[in-house]
Specification:
This protein is of the alpha/beta class. The chain has a single domain, classed as 5'-nuclease (Rossmann fold, 3-Layer(aba) Sandwich). It is 45% helix and 13% strand. Helix 1 crosses helix 2 (22-31). It is globular and about 35 Å long.
Length: 141
């Protein structure tokens, strides 16, 4: 099954800072075509603004290569306005692009900060997304 995903900035940053980590596996799944990322111009601007911060020390060539690859595979969507309340207003765009994707496709919002989003089955952690990709069923305890 093909999955569509909106990837929160914290997952992208973790992917760069922790090669081999679960967030890195999620980003690699997108680049390898296992999932298709959904973005808006606002999301891409946030990615670039955050990833170019000096504290992350990510070299420009690596970032340019990432954005070139990512732009080739990502689908650009508009936002579906939501009346949900958010802890961090910057997170709204990720949720609203996921809502747009959900209108036509199996779409997930992947974040390391689920508490920043409404409790919805399509808002998942990187580990939960990898379990979905790998067909791992949730066990009820």
């Amino acid at each position: 099954m093909k999955y569509y995903v909106v990837i929160d900035t914290n997952v992208i940053v973790s992917s760069f800072l922790q090669p081999g980590s679960i967030p890195n596996q999620v980003v690699n799944a997108a680049i390898e075509g296992l999932v298709t990322p959904l973005v808006s111009d606002e999301i891409l601007i946030e990615y670039r603004d955050v990833l170019t911060r000096n504290k992350f020390k990510i070299d420009e060539e690596t970032l340019n290569e990432f954005f070139e690859d990512f732009n080739q595979i990502a689908i650009h969507l508009d936002r579906t306005i939501s009346d949900e309340t958010f802890i961090d207003e910057d997170d709204i765009v990720f949720y609203e692009v996921a809502l747009t994707g959900k209108k036509e496709k199996e779409t997930y919002l992947i974040t390391g900060n689920k508490k920043h989003f409404p409790v919805k089955s399509f808002v998942v952690t990187p580990r939960e997304m990898m379990d979905i990709i790998n067909g791992v069923e949730k066990k009820n305890n």
